[in-house]
Amino acid sequence: MDPQPINKVRRESFGAILYSENPGFTAFVDAAYADSLGIPAEENLPRETYRAPLDVHLSITQRCNLNCPGCYAVSPSELPKEMPFELAARIIDHLASLSVFTVALGGGEPLLHPDWCKIARYARSRQIVPNLTSNGLLIDSETARSCRVFGSIHLSCHHPQELNRLSDTVRLLQREGLDPGLNVLLSSQTFPHIPEIWKWCSQHAVRRVLALQFKITKNNLDYQSWRLTEDQQRDLYPTIVRWSRKYGVLPLLDCSLFPLLALHHPKKKDLEFFDVAGCQGGNAYIAITPEGHFKPCSFCEPSSGPIEMLDRHAWISMPHLQSFRQSRCSPDCTSCDYLPLCNGGCRIHTLDLGVRP
Questions:
Q1: Distances 40 to 16, 35, 100 between C-alpha atoms, Å
Q2: What pTM value is reported for the model?
Q3: Is the pLDDT of residue 85 over 80?
Q4: Helices (H), 176-257
Q5: What is the rounded distance in angstroms from the CA atom of residue 171 to the CA atom of residue 204?
Q6: Are 278 and 255 within 8 A, CB to CB?
Q7: 40 partner at 20 to 30 Å CA-CA among 176, 204, 252, 281?
């Protein structure tokens, strides 16, 4: 039996957020409309941030069945960590108390966790939609059937050579009525292959492609040359537009790529084509490590502390979160027309390049 869709609302200082799993949408409405829907008003809601995250990236394991060069998440010198189900359940209970809408299970490879399905079902029982990011290697017919617990599934592609094995995975998921998307790591190695990746998506009825910029962390310092070159950064906007329109693919871009779109001075309404915004770390979303510690972004270090300490007061006043939210990549950010959308650029990519906000 397919899970019942989750619909929920949350009051905010500006009005409210309406979330629907099916049909899928997140709507931001003003106070008058929220009142008309009978959503109770609340006092002392923060005005500079949301009252709590909308989405949480939950790393349930650091184990992986691939050994991808340049991996940011897994350290070759450390034993991989895994989140016990009991801790995952406590975290989900806490997120439910904060009225979080979605939780994305990741890793490592989350399907290696022995309780991945149990965790996803528990999240749904607490009215939080579970989503999945996976390399797809472990998805057979039975696993694909179990994946119906998820609201959204994205399969990871680090190089076009992986597309052949992903073809069968996509078919298995689609046979179960699921609509998987593709996460593509944009590096200097994969950028030239954008046309063939987008063509593959069209041929396999994969309608969504999330482009993720290759970033440097303490775990992949030897792969500096894999960052997008200056020419590739400049060509990103026209390249994505051209092939997305040719193959009818919806391009989704991670927040770190927003400044590369702004290089071409597009009209703000044209940016809706990409469903992209700037950094929302520590505001719209946070990440949680296998130990149960939270941080404003999956890529940043160190963590801010155990997730159980994140109440409304800490969410508003914690210095680590405040500093992350207020960072700007350049003094010129304050005079840029795109600032309300970009929000100052990717903090992690800027620090990686040695430029301090």
A1: 10, 7, 17
A2: 0.93
A3: yes
A4: 194-203, 230-247
A5: 8
A6: yes
A7: 281
